[in-house]
Amino acid sequence: MASKFQAPRGTFDVLPAAARQRAAVEATARAIFARAGYESIQTPSFEDTDLFERGVGRSTDIVRKEMFTFEDKGERSLTLRPEGTAPICRAYLEHGMHKLAQPVKLSYVGPFFRHERPQAGRYRQFHQLGLECIGTDSPLADAEAIMLLSDLLGELGVPGVELRIGSLGSFAARQDYLEVLKAHLRKHEGDLSSDVRERIDVNPLRAFDADDPGTQGVMASAPTIVDHLEGEDAEHFDEVKALLEAAGIDYVVDKTLVRGLDYYTRTIFSFVCDALGAQSEIGGGGRYDGLIEQLGGPATPAVGWAAGIERILLALDEEIEAEGRDAFVAIADPDQRQRAMALTVEMRHAGLAAEVDLAGRGLKGQLKHADRIGARHVVILEADGTAQLRDMQTGEQRPADTANLVDEMTGGEA
Ligand code: AMP
Q1: 83 CB under 6 A from ligand 1?
Q2: Pocket of ligand 1, candidates 311, 313, 316: which has the most ligand atoms within 8 Å of its Cβ, to mutate?
């Protein structure tokens, strides 16, 4: 009977078949991170609310509408983390990592929380894997970050991926551009959505992301920041592009690219996969040279990205078969239960994948079950203490000496 309880709206259970796919994606990512020297970091699932307000930005949708914020018993305001970069920067400062040799290269995998309207590819608890390269403004770091996400999607075989890149310029340079953009928005105020109109002063860049036709019309003729890049900002962007070209990575420059977090400066990028429909972004990120200072640390340039594991899985739409077992120990007589347990444990300690009947099935039922779980061998413990070894592929069955069984099945290597 189904229970009256269900997983909360926007969340889901990961059942074993799906867990296999996830594990494979995570293993590929971890191997790529390790090969490039991005060591793993884990931060708590919740942080001070202020960290995200300051880090992600008060004018962003994430902070304005999407945070799971609660008060703890000590009346502290806490928030389930909506993203990973601000917490990692907090940890970087808290643990004095700015005193280590720079850059500090970190990677992570874990759950994140946003109170969004659920739909395919958009959940309230979702999982990201990502990396951060903190403590260098070199364009090589931007290019390396992009290449690693490109490698990951390539190695996993995600089809139809397009890389879009842009640059927001440095924070200072951006201020001039933002005035030009605000003037453009004000000139066409009447055609903008109310949401965009209200945020002309606090977050004009988000107008590029709007989905209402009125705002989109206004933005089609808007000045772009990429066209306004000058000096070192322009050189930085050119070098990132040259490095990608040298590495044979295809990209398109998207002059209207913006991201939902306030902390980005200079390079931003997004990997999209059209097969995903409305939520087409698989992963993205960029440079955030001002964030660590914003959090109270020394001026520290950094770059990073995050990719959504659920989106990767949706795009792959692949099934991974369960691994079979080496052996199933069948109990033909209840008196053999202790022996069966001992033999199963012995096999496991020798590195074999072995199961024993836990359900009190009859022998026929046990053989059927062994077949269902893909056991290659079944050891049948008979009432008189003898044993039979059955090869499930050939159906061949022969008497077996349980004292030597593990040796026999591991080819004497155990
Ligand atoms: P962001 O942290 O907003 O830059 O998002 C990085 C990646 O996380 C996106 O490209 C998505 O793949 C994934 N993502 C963000 N929000 C959600 C969500 N609500 N549900 C599922 N995946 C998400």
Answers
A1: yes
A2: 311
Stretch 329-339: mean pLDDT: 96
Tally of residues, the chain:
414
> Per residue in 247-295, pLDDT tens?
999 999 999 898 877 788 999 999 999 888 888 999 999 999 999 999 9
| Nearest ligand 1 atom to alpha carbon 62 | 3
Q: What is the percent of the chain with per-residue pLDDT over 90, rounded to a whole number?
A: 83
Residue 308 CA, ligand 1 centroid: distance in Å: 5
pLDDT at residue 72 tops 90: yes
Sign of the C-alpha dihedral, residues 290, 295, 299, 303? negative
Whether 126 has a pLDDT exceeding 90, the answer reads yes
Quickly count: other Cβ atoms within 10 Å of residue 1's Cβ: 3
Q: pTM for the complete prediction?
A: 0.92
User: Residue 311 CA: which ligand 1 atom is closest?
Assistant: 12
Helix, strand, or coil (residue 209): helix
Q: How far apart are CA 142 and CA 90, in angstroms?
A: 21
